[in-house]
Amino acid sequence: MDMASHPLPPAARPFGPAQRARWAGLAQDAAESNAFYAPDMLGAALDHLESGSVKLVEALKGEVLIGLLPVAVTPRHGRLPIACTANWMHDHCFFGAPILRKGQEMEAWRSFLEQLDAAPWAPSFLHLQGLDAAGANAAAIEALCVADRRGWREIHRYDRAMLRSTLAADAYWETHVRAKKRKELRRLQKRLAELGTVETRQLAARTELPRWCADFLALEASGWKGQEGSALACRPSHAAFFRAACAAAFDGGRLHFLRIDLDGRAIAMLANFRHGEGAFSFKIAFDEELGRFSPGVLIEIANLHAVQGDPAIAWMDSCAAADHPMIDSLWAERRSIVQYRIALRGTGMRRVRRSAAFAIANGVERIASFVKGQR
Fold first, then answer.
1. I need a surface site. Which of 122, 327, 356, 373 has the fewest CB within 10 A?
2. DSSP 12
3. Domain limits of the chain?
4. Can 3-159+336-374 and 165-313 be said to share one CATH topology?
5. Which residues, other chains included, contact 175 with Cβ-Cβ below 8 Å and sequence gap of 6+?
6. What are the beta bridge partners of residue 259?
7. Which of 2.120.10, 3.40.630, 3.30.300, 1.10.3470 would CATH assign to domain 165-313?
8. d(C-alpha 223, C-alpha 328), whole Å
9. Dihedral sign from CA coordinates of 327, 333, 96, 301
10. Which fold has domain 3-159+336-374?
C-alpha cells in the first residue's frame, strides 16, 4: 500500500479544485458519514479557521484515496501535561470520524497508524475524539488494534440525541413526546400567531443564501452566545467559515437550512449539513426576547417534519451535549460517542517515549477511577 501525509503550511492553506475533487470522490463512497470532514465543511475550516498546525493524513491504495484523517498536535491531554496527536476538531466540529472508503476501512486505518508511527512530529499517542461507538471507524480501530496487538483504550463515552425513525413526523411526535408537552407547544404556537404572520421556510434559492447567513449570524449574536463571545459573528474568520461552508454545501445539495419568521423577521433558524444518507444538526439561533414562546423548540418541530418528510435523509445527529434538556425531550434515539487513546510505535527512543506516555496516561486514569470509586 502506498502511503502519504500532506501537512498544510501555516501560511496560505490552499484548498484547490483538484484536491477538492479527490476528497469529494472519497466522501461519495464513505463508509461512515461525517459532514464535518467532507469537503464542504473541511475546506471552509481549513481556509478560514486557525488551522496552521493541521496535517492531513491521506491513506492511498495504489493511486486511489481510501482515507482522510485531519490531525493536530495538542500540548496537553486532558489535565495531563503530555503532548499528543489528535484528530482535528475545531470549535465548530462536532463529529470526528475520519472519512474512509467503503470496504477499505481496515486498510485505511493501518495506513493512518503506520504513517503516524513513522512521523517524527507525532508525539506520545493518538487521541481520537467524537467517534460513533457503533460506526465503521470504531469497528476498524478495535479490530485492527487487536489484530496487530497495538495498545488502545476507550477513555470516555456518552450518549446524545439522534433522530432515526421510519415514522412520519406526526406519528413520531405523538409517540415520543409527552401529551402535556404537545399541548403546551400547541398553545405557544397559537399565542405566537397572535403577534403577527408566522411563516416557516426551508432555503431553496441560492440567491437567498447570503441574506439567510447574515440573518443567522445576527440572530445568534443577539443572544447569550454574543454576550459570551462564542457566537460565530464574534470572530470574522468564524463567520467567514460559516458562509463558505453554507455556500459549498448548498452548491452540492447538502445544506438543510430552516427558519421561522414573524412578520418577515427571523425569530428562529437552524442550519444542518448532510453527508451520505445522514445529516448533522450544526447550529441553532433564536430570538431570546421571544423566549416565552419557545422559538427554539418550535423550529425543532419544523425540523422534525422536514427530516421525516425527506426520503434522502435517513437520520440526523443532534450534535448536542449529553443530557441536553431540550432535544432529549423531543428525539427518542441516542448515539453513543466515544474517545480512544491509541498507542503509537516507532523506533529507538521515539518508541520508548511513546510507550512511556501511553502507560502514564493509562495509569493516571486508572488511579483517578479508583479514587473516584472510593468516595
1. 373
2. -
3. 3-159+336-374, 165-313
4. yes
5. 167, 332
6. 201, 269
7. 3.40.630
8. 22
9. negative
10. Aminopeptidase (3.40.630)
Kindly state the DSSP code that residue 87 receives in the 8-state scheme: E
Sign of CA dihedral 197, 199, 205, 206: positive
Place of cell 448548498: 250
What secondary structure does DSSP assign to 122-180, as a single string? --SEEEEEEEETTSHHHHHHHHHHHHTT--EEEEEEEEEEEE--SS-HHHHHHHHS-HH
173 grid coordinates: 411526535
pLDDT in single tens digits along all 375 residues of the chain = 333 444 433 333 445 678 888 899 999 999 999 999 999 999 999 999 977 789 999 999 999 999 999 999 999 999 899 999 999 999 999 999 999 999 999 999 999 999 999 999 999 999 999 999 999 999 999 999 999 999 999 999 999 999 999 999 999 999 999 999 999 999 999 999 999 999 999 999 999 999 999 999 999 999 999 999 999 999 999 999 999 999 999 999 999 999 999 999 999 999 999 999 999 999 999 999 999 999 999 999 999 999 999 999 999 999 999 999 999 999 999 999 999 999 999 999 999 999 999 999 999 988 876 666 655
Beta-carbon neighbour count of residue 160 at 10 Å?
Answer: 20
C-alpha cell recorded at residue 193: 400567531
* H, E, C per residue of 290-341: HHHHCHHHHHHHHHHHHHHCCCCCCEEECCCCCCCCCHHHCCCEEEEEEEEE
Residue type, 80: L
pTM: 0.92
Backbone angles phi and psi of 212, in degrees to 5: -60, -45
